[in-house]
């Protein structure tokens, strides 16, 4: 039940560093102009993030603009345009699994279970140094993320390194992670139950939340 608890959680690891920019001075981008209705959405979404502890008020000299992206169901997705920040970020070379290698590894298994992390990035604590670089503004306040935000260039590599470490020896034996998805695979039903029990215990101890 804890794994599927809808309450937002931050996993039990040290804060992560994902935005190394060397000695580059802070980048400030003005917010994009938007309608009153869109401004209201920005304020509402920001309030939700604040209540969940995923952002905090900021005095950072860094700032990236908010963008609202229309989803298929006509609602708006709250995003930050980190393109200028990404351009000066030193890229993390940690590898993502190759899809063909994943399929090859899964080919002999009979039983499969896939887990999807609930807002996986938002479960990863961010270092204080990095928090300032994630800053953004609404019409009446300035904020920064306390967790790994969507849209930063090193997000996938940071999350992949983290989940590989957490899976430990199980990785590439009966559990595979591709960023924020985990697949457990086994040849027999009995093995699969044992593998599921082990991986669920690992994720529970780390305080992950799953969909």
From TrEMBL:
UniProt xrefs under Pfam families: RVT_1 (PF00078)
Database matches in CDD domains: RT_LTR
InterPro entries: DNA/RNA_pol_sf, Rev_trsase/Diguanyl_cyclase, RNA-dir_DNA_polymerase, RT_dom
Annotated ranges, domain Reverse transcriptase: 50-211
Gene3D superfamilies noted in UniProt: 3.30.70.270, HIV Type 1 Reverse Transcriptase, subunit A, domain 1
Annotated protein name in UniProt: Reverse transcriptase domain-containing protein
Species per Swiss-Prot/TrEMBL record: Rotaria magnacalcarata
């Amino acid at each position: 039940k804890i794994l599927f608890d809808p309450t937002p959680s931050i996993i039990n690891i040290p804060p992560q560093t994902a935005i190394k920019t060397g000695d580059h001075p802070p980048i400030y981008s003005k917010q994009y102009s938007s309608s009153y209705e869109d401004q209201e959405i920005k304020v509402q979404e920001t309030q939700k993030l604040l209540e969940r502890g995923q952002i905090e008020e900021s005095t950072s000299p860094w700032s990236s603009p908010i963008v609202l992206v229309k989803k298929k169901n006509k609602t708006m997705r709250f995003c930050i345009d980190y393109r200028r920040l990404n351009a000066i970020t030193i890229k993390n070379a940690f590898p993502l699994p190759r899809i063909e290698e994943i399929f090859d590894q899964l080919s002999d298994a009979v039983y499969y279970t896939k887990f999807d992390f609930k807002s996986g990035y938002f479960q990863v604590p961010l270092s204080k140094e990095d928090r300032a670089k994630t800053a953004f503004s609404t019409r009446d306040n300035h904020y920064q993320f306390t967790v790994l935000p969507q849209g930063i260039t090193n997000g996938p590599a940071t999350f992949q390194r983290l989940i590989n470490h957490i899976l430990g020896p199980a990785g590439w034996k009966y559990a595979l992670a591709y960023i924020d998805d985990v697949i457990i695979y086994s040849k027999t039903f009995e093995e699969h139950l044992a593998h599921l029990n082990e991986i669920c215990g690992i994720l529970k101890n780390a305080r992950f939340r799953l969909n």
